[in-house]
Specification:
By secondary structure, the chain is mainly beta. The chain is built from one helix and eleven strands; from the N terminus they run E-E-H-E-E-E-E-E-E-E-E-E. A seven-stranded antiparallel beta sheet has the order 4-3-5-6-7-2-8, with helices on one face. A hairpin with a 2-residue loop joins strand 6 and strand 7. The two termini are about 15 Å apart.
C-alpha cells in the first residue's frame, strides 16, 4: 500500500451540457487516459483513450484525476476528483479538507464469478484506487480509479 497521507486533494461538482462535458474531458485529459462507460444493458470495460461518445454514465481517469458523469435530463451531473488544487470554470468545490491515499486495486480475472459477465481490463494497466478522505472526520467519501 502506498500511502499519500495528508496530501491535499480537491473534489468538485458541476452540471454541464454534453458539449461542455466533452470540452472539459479534452482539456483535463490531454494525454493518455482510460475510460469506463455504463449503459443500462452493458458496460464498456476499461478502455484506453477518450470515448468517442458519452454514455448515460461513465468515468475517465489518468494518474492525477478522475471525472465521473451521470446524465440527468438534458444535462450531466459531474464529479471531479483530483490531486491538483485547481478549480475549473463551471465547477464548485465541495467544502472539506480533502486528502487522498493511493492503494493497489484488485482486478478480477475473466473466470471470476463475482460479475455476470467478464469486464474488459487492459493487461498492461497499473490500476490503483485513490481514496478521497475528509481529514477532519477521517471519512472516506469517494474512491477513484487511477493509473501509475
Amino acid at each position: 500500500m502506498e500511502n499519500s497521507n495528508q496530501v491535499k486533494a480537491l473534489v468538485q461538482t458541476a452540471t454541464l451540457t454534453e458539449v461542455e462535458l466533452k470540452t472539459h474531458i479534452g482539456n483535463i485529459f490531454p494525454n493518455s487516459c482510460y475510460y469506463f462507460l455504463r449503459y443500462p444493458h452493458t458496460v464498456s470495460g476499461i478502455q484506453a483513450g477518450k470515448p468517442q461518445e458519452l454514455a448515460p454514465e461513465g468515468q475517465i481517469f489518468d494518474p492525477k484525476t478522475e471525472l465521473r458523469w451521470r446524465k440527468t435530463g438534458e444535462k450531466y451531473q459531474v464529479l471531479l476528483l483530483t490531486t491538483e488544487a485547481k478549480t475549473l470554470d463551471g465547477f464548485t468545490p465541495i467544502p472539506r479538507q480533502w486528502v487522498y491515499e493511493d492503494h493497489d486495486a484488485v482486478v478480477y480475472p475473466p473466470t471470476a464469478t463475482r460479475l455476470p459477465k467478464p469486464v474488459k481490463v487492459p493487461q498492461k494497466i497499473n490500476l490503483k484506487q485513490r481514496y478521497f478522505r475528509d481529514s477532519e472526520t477521517s471519512t472516506i467519501h469517494f474512491i477513484a480509479l487511477s493509473t501509475c
